[in-house]
Amino acid sequence: MVKAGSRRRQQVTDTERRQARRSYRSEVRAQQAARTREVITRAARRLFEKDGFAASTIAAIAAEAGVSQQTVYTAFGSKAALVRAIVEQMEESADAAAWRRRIASEEDPARILTAFAQWTRAFFEASSPSFAIAQEAMPELAELTAEGDAQRRRALEALIGRIGRAGGLRDGLPEREAVDRAWLLTGIHPYLDATQACGWTPAAYADWLAESLAQQLLAAPTCDARS
Prior knowledge:
Elements: H1 2-51, H2 58-65, H3 69-75, H4 79-93, H5 96-105, H6 109-137, H7 142-165, H8 175-185, H9 188-197, H10 202-217
Helix pairs in contact: 1-2, 1-4, 2-3, 4-6, 5-6, 6-7, 6-10, 7-8, 8-10
Protein name: TetR/AcrR family transcriptional regulator
DNA-binding region: 57-76
Keywords: DNA-binding, Transcription, Transcription regulation
């Protein structure tokens, strides 16, 4: 009986070891796949910005990344998916998580809008080359553009909802219209017009956006929107 019990314990131990090895191998493969995707994404971004979306073939991207074409197809499936990954990468490089925490930590309506304006500047400043790529890639990226617009609207709904609950919106301004106004102001095109057509610095754009949001949405100035 003792021997049978020992065998059962040994079998359980062996099973646990095999499961641990499989889990470790799966984790290693996932890390390797993530690194490969990162390498391919950066290579694609370099080529898209240098040669344009149409001229950058999967073969050229694979060569730039030092991988096979099949690896690119397996990791992404299409050039449009690569642009999506580039935009996501730019959001990470703009430190989106830290900005979300900062925006959430603000209580004063004007400071909430200022923080959002500064985040918008940081994101567009990091990703404007990728938006140029995305514009060239249309209509392949129409879905990505729509998703980005919808995501921005949801973020503004939450932000303006906070301001509305705090009594910070202008008298008679419905929250839905406030969201519409903020959504129109915070798109990529005003940023590109300001920094490219008008020659503004990104900092000047952020100041203008914070001031415009406050003028359009807030009941009364509670602090300098640029402080």
